[in-house]
């Protein structure tokens, strides 16, 4: 039985991970440390609330006292908390440095001082962009070349994780995964933004020519990959985790969503491109396959359909998120 400190567990991937873990490891205990930023929403974890193995703590990973107190109580940290949206990092990168870099360092320091293991959840965006002209994919040996302030802050955090391993022998692992999709994703990210806009009768903004390629990973595949890393991963090792799509650009994704919702291409609105927009991401997950037995199991088309259906069935959830109503509720509840 383990006691796991999850940071950022009220966000998209963290909440899916907590749900995944509690169902597969019912004897374990989980503490969810989350600041409840705009992206953190306890509605994502209604089904975990009240379960004996689960506890929520409102707090910031840049608060050294909270971090040290909780790390001391746990066996293992699974670190999701981050500012995660590229467009926000282009507008203002300050919080990205505080949370993603300083917050990660405080967790590492506490893990070192109390001799705990830490798994750090990172992104394929640390490797920069691939061109459409090659078939190359990122792997663990790819050089870091982050292009957005978000990616740069995650790259800095990855370097710190490895530095604590090399210098102090801290037991760490990292996963660098591709773009996740699935239920409870905040509707500022491309897929949930597109679905919810269309459900509201609004057009979908497509940046630039729309020919940007992402390697879509269903969130449950990501959760399972982390589980495998915690079970079998080698300390000091990075694992690249990708999904089942071969190569699908944003326009193709939108056309699939339009078809699923029975709407036409007049709902696509080409808008000004994102500055410094990375053309293509693709991940080679062969190390994870060889060492951990990982392979993505969720077909993109099938789970895109399920994701669209989830947003159709859970309109109150995303309406609250879009209006910010859930924030007011939890701020009153937790006295923020
Ligand atoms: P998210 O934005 O949905 O959730 C982030 C969570 O972290 C929120 O609950 C937020 O309240 C919490 N948080 C933010 N700052 C905090 C702080 N200072 N202290 C405590 N909690 C804080 O993000 P996500 O999409 O679930 O991503 C989770 C992790 O996975 C991130 O580290 C991200 O970089 C990484 N990642 C995400 C994707 C993706 O496609 N979503 C892909 C690759 C890697
Ligand atoms: P996003 O979900 O922001 O993830 P990331 O930038 O981390 O890959 O964006 C996914 C892709 O969709 C990316 O190429 C940018 C594009 N995009 C749009 O075309 N329109 C939008 O409104 C958003 C949010 C993203």
Secondary-structure topology with pairs:
Layout: E1 3-7, H1 12-24, E2 29-34, E3 54-58, H2 64-73, E4 76-79, H3 86-91, H4 94-113, E5 117-123, H5 149-168, E6 172-177, E7 180-181, H6 190-199, E8 204-207, E9 213-214, E10 217-218, H7 219-232, E11 237-241, E12 248-249, H8 250-260, E13 268-271, H9 286-292, H10 300-313, H11 315-323, H12 325-334
Parallel strand pairs: 1-2, 1-4, 2-3, 4-5, 5-6, 6-11, 7-10, 8-13
Antiparallel strand pairs: 9-12
Helix pairs in contact: 1-7, 2-4, 4-5, 6-8, 6-10
EC number: 4.2.1.46
Keywords: Lyase, NAD
Organism: Candidatus Buchananbacteria bacterium RIFCSPHIGHO2_02_FULL_56_16
Task: Describe this structure as you would to a colleague.
The protein is an alpha/beta fold. It is built from twelve helices and 13 strands. The protein has one domain (3-334): 3-Layer(aba) Sandwich (Rossmann fold). 43% of the residues lie in helices and 16% in strands. It has a seven-stranded parallel sheet, with helices on both faces. The protein has a two-stranded parallel sheet with strand order 7-10. Strands 8-13 form a two-stranded parallel ribbon. The radius of gyration is 19 Å and the shape is globular. The protein starts with a strand and ends with a helix. It binds nicotinamide-adenine-dinucleotide (NAD) and thymidine-5'-diphosphate. The site of nicotinamide-adenine-dinucleotide (NAD) has 30 residues, from helix 1, helix 4 and strand 5. It catalyses: dTDP-alpha-D-glucose = dTDP-4-dehydro-6-deoxy-alpha-D-glucose + H2O. It is an enzyme of class 4 (lyase).
